Amino acid sequence: MTRLERQVNDEVLTRFPAGAVQRVALLQEGDEPQVGPEELLVRVFVGLAVVPHEAVAGDSDSSQAAAPSREESLQWWAAQHETAMRRLRRELSWRRGALPQNAGASIAAVMELVSGTYALIIDLRRNGGGSPDGVVFWCSYLFDGPGIHLNDIFEAETGETRQFWSMSYVPGSRYVDKPVYLLTSHETFSGGEDFCYTLQALGRAQLIGETTGGGAHPTGMRPLSPTMAISVPFARSVNPITGTNWEGTGVVPDVSVAAAEAYDVSYGMALRHVLSLDTPPPIREEASATLARLSA
User: Fold this and answer.
1) N or C: which end of the chain has fewer CB within 10 A?
2) CB 245 within 8 A of CB 237
3) Averaged over 248-261, what is the pLDDT?
4) CA-angle at 117, arms to 252 and 269, nearest 5°
């Protein structure tokens, strides 16, 4: 461990309750530490809020330049380190994501629109996260009523576990007894992974695409010093079926293909399902013709 790493480690451990942090990782752009599903990892992004004064003020004499604002620092960082900013946005996105009170009407409208279909494809290849409550809301449409234990989230500081169950009521029509296909990529993250992992564990959906990003622990960014910020996990997901989660490993798809090919593969699976049913002749003919074009 380097001197800087020891300093960061000591500083982090003094700022959080005993047991709330188990390991500190010092990251540069593009780094992604190996982390187990039970491990509460602190990711320290070196230089997140650091910007050379001359880069903002245009003055080579940094002692004469005004200290940059946080917005200026972030703008400079975004220009220089786009990958790191994408990770930052990805890790924070669950907090501003699909809360039921914000997105519930849209989800209900979509589920009503597709209620008469024979199969459902949900594209999560660019989903960077969302609210756990939003995941529950959407999952509830895919089961026939309440009583399905979907997920638990354990909070390290309080020692409390919050359980998430399917809802007894959803507005509009439920989508049950029909296949569901979820499209994934390495960009699928956090709440999007929760949706995938939960439905896969329950046998309710098939995943097609790439292994997802591997973010199961809710995190929050906290400043460590004027030159550092840390992404701190304060909780972890615990699936009631598997007893673990997807942190660091990602959600492994049932059908592993490149993300760009996932839609065609899932569409072919859906069409073959339609052809296995006793459907009216016009629907069978359309499904058969579409599958032939897709396979050509």
Assistant:
1) C
2) yes
3) 97
4) 40
CA distance 146 to 158: 28
**What is the token pair recorded at 29?**
């752009």
Task: Give the mean model confidence (pLDDT) for residues 136-144.
Answer: 95
Provide the greatest CA pair distance for the chain.
Answer: 79
169 pLDDT above the threshold of 70 = yes
Most confident range, picked from 27-36, 125-134, 259-268: 259-268
> What token pair was written down for 283?
């629907």
Give the pLDDT score at 56: 36
Which two tokens mark 96? 């501003």
DSSP-derived secondary structure for 43-61:
EEEETTT---HHHHH--S-
* Separation between Cα atoms, residue 189 and residue 250, nearest integer Å: 8
* Contact between 128 and 89 (Cβ < 8 Å): yes
8 Å CB contact between 148 and 165: yes
Query: What stretches of the chain adopt beta strand conformation (E)?
Result: 23-27, 41-46, 120-123, 149-155, 161-165, 180-184, 206-209, 219-225, 228-233, 235-238, 255-256
Q: At 30, is the secondary structure helix, strand, or coil?
A: coil
Q: Which residue has the higher pLDDT, 221 or 64?
A: 221
DSSP annotation string for 171-205: SS----SS-EEEEE-TT--THHHHHHHHHHHTT--
User: For 129, which DSSP code?
Assistant: -
What pLDDT does 131 receive? 87
Rg (CA), the chain: 23
C-alpha–C-alpha distance, residues 282 and 268, integer Å = 18
C-alpha distances out from residue 228 to 40, 152, 212, Å: 19, 32, 28
pLDDT at 10: 63
